[in-house]
## 1
Amino acid sequence: MHLKLTKYYSFLVFVLISFTFNAYSSKSRFRGDVFVDVSAKKVLYEKVAVLPFKAPIELAGSSVSDFFTTELLLNYKYQMIERGQIENIFKEQALNLSGVTDNSIAVKVGAILGVQGSIIGTISEYGYQQKKSKKLPSVGLSIRMIDTTSGKIVWSVSDSQLGSYKTSLSQHAKMMVKNMVTALLRKCREVGDIMATALPKPEIISISGGVRSTTIEWARDGTSLIKGYQILRSTLSEGPYQVAGKKQNNGPQIIRFIDSKLLDSSMYYYKIQGISKTGLLTMPSKNMEIITAGPPPQPYNIIATSGDLRKVTVSWESINDPNIEGYFIFRKTEESFFKEITYVAGTAKSSYTDSGTKKERLGDDQLYEYAVCSVNTAKVRSKRSKSASAKTCPLPSAVTNVFAENNMVKSVALRWDKAAENNLKGYCIYRSKHFDRGFEIIAFTKGTNNNTYLDKSKGKKALKDGRTYHYRIASYYQKDAIGELSKTATAITKPLPERVKKLQAISGEIKQISLNWEENPESDISHYLIYRKKPKQKKFKTYTQVESKNTSYVDEDLKDGACYLYAISAIDEDNLTSLPTDLVRASTKPVPVKPEGLNAYLEDTYVNLTWDINPEDDIATYKVFRKKSFKKILIDETNSTSIIIGDLLPNKAYAFVINAVDKDGLQSAFSKAVKIKTPKQ
């Protein structure tokens, strides 16, 4: 019974011819005739029988038919029926073994043998011819195969040749048969009849469907007959089939072929054929049905847990599927749709902690909903899982019972009740100059057991004396997760002492200036600072300090007629210094001005000195000095504005100066000198 070939064989002709290694090409040119019916490629001639050839000599027919059988076996084109089976049929049918030439007998015997083709032949010549002095072997052959179903001639080949005198008749016949078979098979390939039914079929070991892929494994042919394999694929069992790939017959004992880029959950049909070194194809392997894997399974047992600050942990049941490559995590809020937030690679991990991103962190005390989908190696995603929800923890509640201590020096001590929440990092201290606005963070404390804080800021944030400050406290999980602010607590720093009042400086005292002031009202005044400077000096210098029990001070050892500016500050026991008083000015008593208008009137041996009266009211006396060389010698004093100096020597020069002395003994500078010269006697 004929096995009809499917349409794919016509497609394979071109492919396999290009794959062929032509082992049959011979250096000697075949001069005979070859015919192959073009419809031969449509019929599978799996088994054939070579019937005895008709020959002038019976032994020659038997030998040449055996030659032809052997040559076909060597090329694996057909599965051959043994000669013994053929002889038995001939005996049973009472047929002559000396040769078959009738097509009808060939059809009859073939049908009995169960073959698709019967090969018959005629040996027209089998002997020697004399050529000059040499005997040359001469053989003439005509062979054809008959389709045992239709009786048609499938192919025929004939040749007649003289051999070399060095070659025996049998050797010459064998060589001719080989060349004829080579030419026949070449012609078969040309018309597309390339099936070699005697070649071993591929032995399938395993098949499996994967993610958009299929895998086929078969045993590598251990002979040298098979050069490679072609894998045929179709989406229908009846075809048409197309070449999906090729594999060489080398390497491991098991050959593996992976067909990729297929559709999900789809049925594919496969056949495998070996390709011989002569370019013939083996019989196809058994049909294989393989279904590719569908989309990956949907994750299940989704659990979302929180209680942490701005974090939610999502977990799911790990999927035991080697094709799973990882998981995608989705998140939504009550106001949004599901949004893909991350990818978890691999299957070893079945949880993810969502803490948001730098640009989009999770909120506080907010409900989030999560879903998960798996993804396989072909990047196909499963359906999203059922969702699970969790709520992030709220910010800490407000701190209670905040107290701020008053009247501290440039500082404020705070205390409050400890917060009840766990996992707190500490407390955040806020301060403002206003009761209900403008609060700024001034410090973070560490640890929740430390529920006190001393605001003793420095630099630009330093507290000022006598100022009101308002405070609020909040606990925090981290510096960007601060809880609700407490109620406001207010404190006033200790003020500076009041400015000293009624500072007075007394002028006109002899070489001193007396200061006095009112006692400050504060009970903790430690001392007073007195500042002094001259009128032309730019800055005050701290001159001295006076104990708090004193409210006066005498600035002694001053120059006569010197002017000074004074201010004073009160200093308390905390070293707080009041603002200085307004400046007061005072001067010591000046010396009298030097006398003016000194004149000398010479009369004989005495001289009368006169001068203008000094403007001061308290001039007690005027002193008269004789100026001699660099010395001034006191010679007299008077409380009037004239004096007579006698006992002058004749012909002698004299110089006189005076100064004024007040009642406090202050002496003026010397007047201008007056000079005289007594006459000669």
## 2
Amino acid sequence: MRFSRKLTIAVAFVLAFSLLAGCGGGGGGGGGGGDGDAADLNFLTYAHYVVPVHTWDPHVAAHLENQIFFNTYESLVRFDANTDTFIYDLATDYERSEDGMEWTFYLREGVYFHDGTPFNADVVKWNIERIQRINMSSAYLWAAVEEVVVVDDYEVKFVLSEPAPIDLIASSNQTAWMISPEVGDDDDAAMEWFSQGNVAGTGPYLVRSQIQGSEVILEQNPDYWQGWDRGNHIEFVVIQYIAEASTRRQMMESGEADMTIALLAEDNIALMAHPDLEVLISDGFVNLAASLNSKRPPLDNQRVRQAIAHSYPAEMFVEYIRQGEFASVATDTLMSNAIWGSKQDLRYDFDIEKTREILIEEGFEDGFELDVSVMVGMEDRRRILEMWAAELAKVNVTLNINQMLFEAMYAQSQEEDKTAIQHIFTFANWPDIVHPGAMYSNSAHSSGAWDFAYYRQDHYDAMIDDAFLTSVIDFDAGRDKYLELAEYTAEQALFINMGDDKSVTVINKRVKGLNPNPAYEWMPFFYYMWLE
């Protein structure tokens, strides 16, 4: 199998490197061992289910680019959800005031960006101010930061307008990366520079090359501050977009790929018996979400939304789609049961007769049509939607399943007239930080980038804001606020949690050092991995 692999991907390396010799890959640096026999290169191939990059600006990107950015950029700290501890990257320590209004971070010395710019407190200040100025992606996380004070070259203080968990925010799985200030203060020019596939981080890897919408090749950053002394680090990483789950499975079986995710449950079970492969299963914070468009009739009717919630066959998803192995029935309508503050008792059991009863009461005995958007290539989602459609047909409701590229799904969801777009938007959902506030702020608040329910009520936004602020000051009181918020959200039937997913990654057994962390779902940190 490895011989076949060398005949395919290694040849691609020879071609890519010969074409790129002398011109870099937009990585802002060079080196990485591009010379020599390609068949002997130490490289890993990651077959991914989504396009590797939609935007190259780390302060604009929203999740999909993380497998690139977590290996080319770094944040001040990372959170290990398995041990509830912080890992220090660009910071070496931090402290907070008793009232939570000031946070001081002590920074690592001797760190340089790919372009040679030194990392220091001025850089941190510049980054946070840029994030707030651009105000995209998860910039909302930094809203409480009123001022960033440079105490000295390697000490920076965050002064807040209200208490906020800056340690968690600084460890966010997006909009927390530090970029080189050499990209400049002209945001339009910077975004144009990033759009060319450039990176400007401190991370262990550079971008060697890219094929837009298809593939990214990473190579070692020879000047990385942690060094490469271990001796068995991965030199190159090939991240390929492979939409079809069946193709990703075949690549794993043949040895053409070393890692993949988002396979069908039956594929995962079959690959458990493969002598060269390992299926890693762990608890996570991801759930399969369905947001109900509260602005488009008939889902503008709360009772109709409740009826639709009762029609969803949650146990079918767990037993038939996830084979009873890779998911559990959710009790909270918005987020995973594993996140604190989530609702732990089921609000909407599967009861198609209850659905029928409510629809008759609301004058919909003859039924109606609903349009649901689902990402193309996600066969498990398509299958459960077909099962759901079969149940809804029993009460004269037609569920039109529209498979789309995610870019098209998202573009449609952002159209101004919410009464003319999808009734239901399905997607994998997880928190930016290990805090329920991240789920509500992103997916339920009026300002949320992933708000596809469009409820947008001032009192609801105020409940979300109040729960977050309370939780920072008093954890127990905050948890109670979130439980109240979960009850209200469930009663409004704005979301259907289709199932709480396990985190599943398939790897070749020669891949070592991959330690799944629910705080960074499906995000491999290649620097800590190696090949045997």
